[in-house]
Amino acid sequence: MDVNQVDYMVIDFPGELPAETVVPPIQALVEDGAVEILDLAFIRRDAGGLIEAVELDALGDAQGAAFADLTGEIHGLLSDEDLQLVGEELPHGSTAAVLVWENTATRALKRAVLASGGTVVAHERVPAGLVERDLTAIGMKASSI
Question: Domain residues of the chain, as ranges?
Answer without folding.
Answer: 6-105, 108-145
